[in-house]
């Protein structure tokens, strides 16, 4: 027992030294917020808890590979956002404020795209409200303006990196949006639309992964 207490004290001292408790508290607050959100959705929309917390494939008795490419895309969004946030924090610690802001802004932008894609906000959620029938083109326009601001704000950092991957990402994602707005989402058109979107996400991930690696490696030299 004394050994366990001693180890706990050592861990506590280390956490205090590294100022990690603030991060841990923030994580638990986020967890509490999410659980409260589940409870709210249950009461507001009368959706059973087992459908809110369970696995969709089990709930709808569908094959686990349903939505395979979409799920991989979501994981890639998550992967990219995590890299951006982690890199931004590391660079902030070494007093590279400009590049820290670049990666943190990139992480936030990626998180917005992730949440929209995963929860189908512009594809489904907003369509449940009568006043949001034109939300899809408006959402795309907002994303375009955010991207334009992002490029203008950080163009020097972008040009000093492997920007070809960012250009490919924007190009393929743009083609996916264009197909979505022009053609019906069915058959071959649907496959092409989602194929372009997936290639766009891949290039988005490559751009930030390589840029983060090169930036942090430079700081370590």
TrEMBL record:
UniProt protein name: DUF998 domain-containing protein
**Keyword flag Membrane:** yes
Does Secreted show up as a keyword for this record?
no
Provide the transmembrane region boundaries. 20-41, 65-92, 101-122, 134-152, 164-183, 195-216
Q: Which UniProt keywords apply?
A: Membrane, Transmembrane, Transmembrane helix
């Amino acid at each position: 027992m004394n050994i366990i207490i001693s180890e706990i004290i050592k861990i506590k001292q280390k956490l205090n030294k590294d100022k990690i408790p603030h991060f841990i508290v923030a994580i638990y607050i986020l967890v509490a917020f999410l659980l409260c959100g589940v409870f709210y959705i249950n009461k507001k929309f009368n959706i059973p808890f087992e459908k809110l917390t369970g696995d969709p494939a089990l709930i709808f008795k569908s094959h686990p590979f349903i939505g395979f490419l979409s799920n991989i895309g979501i994981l890639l969004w998550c992967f990219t956002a995590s890299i951006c946030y982690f890199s931004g924090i590391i660079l902030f610690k070494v007093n590279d404020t400009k590049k820290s802001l670049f990666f943190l802004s990139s992480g936030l932008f990626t998180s917005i795209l992730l949440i929209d894609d995963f929860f189908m906000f512009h594809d489904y959620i907003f369509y449940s409200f009568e006043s949001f029938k034109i939300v899809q083109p408006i959402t795309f326009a907002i994303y375009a303006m955010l991207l334009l601001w992002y490029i203008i704000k950080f163009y020097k950092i972008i040009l000093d990196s492997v920007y070809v991957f960012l250009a490919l990402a924007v190009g393929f994602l743009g083609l996916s949006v264009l197909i979505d707005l022009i053609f019906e989402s069915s058959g071959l058109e649907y496959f092409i639309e989602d194929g372009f979107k997936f290639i766009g996400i891949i290039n988005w991930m490559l751009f930030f992964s390589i840029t983060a690696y090169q930036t942090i490696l430079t700081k370590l030299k």
